[in-house]
Amino acid sequence: MRTSPVRAILLATAIQLVRFGLIIGALEIAPDLGIHGWYQGLFANAVCAAFAIGVVTWLKLWRHSGLFVLWKSGKAPLLLLPFVIEALVWLAYPGGFASQAPGIGLWALTLLLVGVNEELTSRVAVLQTLRTAFSSTWAVVIAGVMFGLQHLSLLATGSPSTEDLLTILVLTSVYGFSLGAFQVRFAWVLPLILVHAASDFTQILTTEPVPFAMHIVITLTLLAYGTWLLKGHKETPTGAPLIPPR
C-alpha cells in the first residue's frame, strides 16, 4: 500500500520519538522501582524492546522482518560476513576486551536487548514505513539518518562533548544505512540483531580506546558496502500497509 511521503516520515518520526520518550521515562521511574545505576540502562533497554515488539505487531510487519528465519540459502549468509568481521575486528585491534561491572553476562543481555529494540524499530518498523512512500534506496538513506539521530538519546544518559556526539551521529547513520541495505535486499533481521549486539559488545568492552582513524576506515567501508548491496537489489513493492486495517 502506497502512502504520501509526508505521512510516512511523520509516522517514522513518531515511532522514534515515542522510543526516545520511553527511554527518558524509564530512566526517570527506575529509581522509584528500586532500580539504580547500571541497571537503569538494562531496564530502559527492556522497555524499548517491548515497545519495538509492540510497534512491529501493530504495523503487522512480522512477515517482512525475517526475525523467525534461522537460515537463508543463497547469498545472504555470505553477505553477512562484512558485518561479522566489523563486530570481531575490535577484538583484534586495539587489543582484546575485558569484563566490566556488573559482568559479561549482564552486558551481553543488555546489548542483545539493544540489538532487538534498535533493529526491530529502525530496520523493520521505520524502514518498512518509509518504503510505503519512497524507493528502497531513499527509504534506507532516511532510515539510516533517523537511526543516527536516535543516538541523541546519549544526551539523556551522559554528557558527551559536541565533537563526540557529532561523530557518533555520523558513524551510526552509516552503520544504520548499511544494515538497512541488507534488510531491504534480504528481509532477514535476525542476524542483524546478533551482529549489532556483538559489535556493541566488543566495542564497549574493548580494553583500549578505539583509534578514530579505525572508525573512519570501517565507516567508509560500510558506506561503500551498503551502496553496493542496494545496487544489487531489484526494486519491488513491499505490499505492507502503513496503518493496519481495523
UniProtKB/TrEMBL annotation:
Residue stretches making up the CAAX prenyl protease 2/Lysostaphin resistance protein A-like domain: 104-201
Give TM segment ranges.
42-62, 74-93, 99-116, 137-159, 165-182, 212-230
Instruction: List, in alphabetical order, the GO biological process terms annotated in this UniProt record.
Output: CAAX-box protein maturation
| Keyword presence, Transmembrane | yes
Gene Ontology MF terms in the entry: endopeptidase activity
Q: Is Cytoplasm given among the entry's keywords?
A: no
Q: Which UniProt keywords apply?
A: Membrane, Transmembrane, Transmembrane helix
Q: What is this protein called?
A: CAAX prenyl protease 2/Lysostaphin resistance protein A-like domain-containing protein
Gene source species: Glycomyces artemisiae
